[in-house]
Amino acid sequence: MNIVAFAARNVKRNWHRSLVTTLAMALAGFIMILFASLSEGLMQTSERNAVAMNLGDIQIHVEGYRDDPDLYMRMDDADALVSKIQQAGLYATQRLYGFGLAAAGTSSAGVQLRGINPENEKTVTLIHQHVMAGQWLDPLEPAGVVIGRKLARTLGVGLGDEIIFLGQASDGSMANDLYHVRGIMKSVAQDIDRGAIFMSEDAFRDLMMLPRGAHEIAVMRPDRRADLEQARSHVATLAGEYETVSWDTLMPVIARILEIMDAQIIIMILITYVAVAMVVLNAILMSVFERIHEFGVMKAIGVSPWQIVLLIFSETLIQVLVASVLALISGWPLALYYQTHGIDLSAIAGSTTFGGIAIDPIWYAYVTPNSLILPVAFLYLIAVLAVIYPAAKAAVIQPVQAIYYR
Amino acid sequence: MNFHKYFQTVLLGVFLLLCGLTPVAAEEQTATERAREILRQVDDMWRGISSHAIFTMQVKTTHYTRSMRMEAWSKGKEQTLVRILSPLKEKGTATLKSENNIYSYLPRTDRTIRLTSGMMMGSWMGSHFTNDDLVKESRMEDDYEPTISFEGMRDGQDIIIFSLIPKPDAPVVWGKIEITVLAEGFIPLQQIYYDEDMAIARTMRFSDVKPMAGRLRPAVMRIVPSDKPDEYTELDYKLLELDVKLSDHFFSIARLRRK
To answer: What are the residues facing B146 on neighbouring strands?
Structure first.
């Protein structure tokens, strides 16, 4: 007896039932592929979002700067180091920090000055896209600064208004100058919202009497899939004596939150898979149990229990094969579509940030071999597991009982 | 760096310097009462006196050394005006304390700004002083309990050392202040500041005693933080006049801009 041919004929014979079972499995596979791709995309982008606004993947400082951000703890060869990192195929930018007082009219507030290299910063972070009103920095206009939104409110300034900065330059003299508000940031993170004044690197150097050097170098790897630790050690080799840390060390809490998010996504995937497994299990169970009578007759005419088991497994595998092909040809292209176009959630979420993490309103899928192979493999696994019990039952049942089985 | 500590030191130094000390009535007193009396006189003398001073301030830190010349006026407790005479870059920069507000005039931008409380603890002119130091005052008598811990000859000088222990509820940062004064005229020689763990936090030394505003006073005051023994800020009084006539109008925002 050719089991496979027999099984194929059985599948074809009751094609209504086969179609329902197959479609149920195909739908399950489709959902799993899509969901796995979207989840993968969420996990991939959450890290990028965490670092894209300000942090960068990797930061370089003078040892000890992070504990005590001192104007004098700077890397004198920062420009050369940035070029070196850029030549190594990574994005890098230098930053300068200073503290002081900003005043406008009768209001004043303590501020953190951020000297930015607008050209390089654009390659590393997305902060230039995060201007609420006005424009981002222009190196050709050194007196134009961009400030945090809460700071703008505290000082009572709008676009074009003047701001006086008062602080201490590196030579101990008084650093003070007049600037005008060129742009106001959207909400980024509390410290930036409340007290950041972004100015171009050159303006910062003039004001604070710092002809060279930088306090921080932020590095971003161009390929998100590249291993972070590997990139870090590569940069660390270039940075020599300086402290090179990756973002998850800088922001352990956010790294931990993302880990938890990843775990949540995996739990979501599992729940989806279990729900899908129920559908498949039900379809297969029904298709076997409603045929117990038929199997009884087969046994009565001399078909061995082992052949019955093989037959049932073959029938199921034929259907799973068809279902997985259907799932792949429907799910894969759609996942690929969302990988390029994304699902636009801006109507619900809008572009915003939360604690320095950019919330990207467009949800991109990310198709990996795993997001295709795992759902299909899972489909097979479920089908095989689902069929064991009814197949065994059909195999061991007495023909007479089976014939009268209701 | 604890700017608050600097404030306390400078404060003490400034008032001792500006006001001097008068001899205590030689009556029978217990040591504590006598110490209190000295301190009270110091406090009382410091208040309600107008002054005019010209001094230089030299600041030495790990990163820079700079010298500035300044002119200062004060009237009562509430009004103080300090103007920078040199260097050129900061010339004309003026700080005014009037009532509870502090204003800073910045000639480079030709603007006057009001300093927030947050800025008050910032370094003033890159020195070991805060903005607060120059304009704030407090009464040691209110915050500290003095006891005379030594009286007699030491290093060929007849001196009195007294210790100031903060009162239980006093809002101060020091664990103890030890003041050494000459027995004659109570001219301060040295003040040692102890932190709450009774370790020396910094030392203020007075030197160059010469006649100023009618009596002998030390013209030089140098603060050395003990965690950075190579750094210091030194004030050197070139001129000191007390009880000068100054109108309230003198301490107005409008006056700030006047060169």
So the answer is: B164
Distance CA A20, CA A285 (A): 13
CA distance A350 to A171: 45
* C-beta atoms of B122 and A174 within 8 A: no
Considering all CA atoms of chain A, what is the largest pairwise distance in Å, rounded to the nearest integer? 105
Give contacts of A156 with chain B, Cβ < 8 Å. none
Q: Looking at this predicted complex, what is its ipTM?
A: 0.72
H/E stretch holding A198 reads strand A196-200
B253: contact with A, CB 8 A cutoff: no
CB contact under 8 Å between B111 and A100, yes or no, is: no
Q: Position A41: which residue type?
A: G
Asked if omega into B87 is within 30° of 0 (cis), the reply is yes
Residue B111 sits at the chain A interface (C-beta within 8 Å): yes
Contact B114 A72 (CB under 8 A): no
How far apart (Å, rounded) are the C-alpha atoms in residues A154 and A227? 42
SS3 call for B98: strand
CB contact under 8 A, A168 and B109: no
Cβ pairs bridging A and B (under 8 Å): 66
Residue A394 has pLDDT above 90, yes or no: no
The reply to whether A171 touches chain B by the CB within 8 Å rule is yes
Q: Could you give phi then psi for residue A355, rounded to 5 degrees?
A: 55, 40
Provide the number of structural domains found in chain B. 1
Residue A223: CB atoms within 10 Å: 9
DSSP secondary structure letter of residue B198: S
Enclosing domain of residue B128: 3-256
CATH number for the domain spanning B9: value is 2.50.20.10
**Chain A residues inside the 8 Å CB shell of B93:** 174
Token pair 């597991």 in the structure block, residue:
A385
Spatial separation of the C-alpha atoms in residues A146 and A113, rounded to whole Å:
10
* CB nearest to B64's CB, from A103, A172, A174: A172
Instruction: Find chain B residues with C-beta within 8 A of A106's C-beta.
Output: 114
What is the pLDDT tens value at each position of chain B, 259 positions in all? 344 555 555 554 554 444 444 444 444 457 778 888 777 665 654 444 688 889 999 999 988 899 999 998 888 767 888 899 988 888 999 988 877 678 889 888 888 888 776 666 667 777 777 666 665 455 677 778 888 888 888 888 888 888 888 888 876 777 888 888 887 777 788 889 898 899 998 888 988 988 887 777 888 989 898 888 999 999 898 988 888 888 888 888 888 876 5
The C-alpha atoms of residue B35 and residue B145 are separated, in whole angstroms, by 9
Q: How far is B192 from chain A (nearest CA, A)?
A: 26
Residue B75 phi/psi, 5-degree rounding, is -145, 120
For residues B43 and B23, give the distance between their C-alpha atoms in angstroms, rounded to a whole number.
14
For residues A285-310, average pLDDT? 86
DSSP assignment of B130-184: BHHHHH----HHHHEEEEEEEEEEETTEEEEEEEEEE-TT---S-SEEEEEEETT
In terms of Cβ atoms closer than 10 Å to its own Cβ (0-12, 13-18, 19+), residue A12 is: exposed
Distance from C-alpha of A370 to C-alpha of A83, rounded to nearest angstrom = 37
Q: A216 near A165, Cβ under 8 Å?
A: no
